[in-house]
Amino acid sequence: MGTYTLKSIGKSTDYMTIVREMEDGFVVRIVRDRDGYDEVKTDFISHSLFESCLRTGYLTKIEEAEKVATNA
Q1: SS3 (DSSP) at 48
Q2: Which of helix, strand or coil describes residue 58?
Q3: Which residues are CB-contacts of 56 (< 8 A; sequence separation ≥ 6)?
Q4: Considering only CA atoms, which of 12, 19, 71 is closest in space to residue 42?
Q5: Which pTM value belongs to this model?
Q6: How far is it, in rounded angstroms, from Cα 56 to Cα 26?
Q7: d(CA 11, CA 31)
């Protein structure tokens, strides 16, 4: 599956994890840093929107070692 950082303004560390792949897209969990607490949201993103976000740089894949280091 995978975890991706979301391009954001400032030093926010928002990220998205793919929970499940479906025929027409992905179920994702989005975690956003909101003034010191995490806002967690589960949502759906289509395959075409996901690919567009990767191409434009809005989403960047996180390597597992990097993810562990930021959560420590």
Answers
A1: helix
A2: coil
A3: none
A4: 19
A5: 0.76
A6: 18
A7: 14
The reported pLDDT for the residue numbered 68 is 46
DSSP 8-state assignment for residue 11: T
DSSP type of residue 62: P
Question: Does residue 69 surpass a pLDDT of 80?
Answer: no
Instruction: Report the alpha-carbon distance of residue 15 to residue 4 in Å, rounded.
Output: 6
- Nearest to residue 6, comparing CAs of 17, 44, 15, 31? 15
CB distance 12 to 32 below 8 Å:
yes
Structure tokens, 64? 């597992």
Q: What three-state secondary structure class fits 71?
A: helix
Number of H helices, E strands in the chain: 2, 5
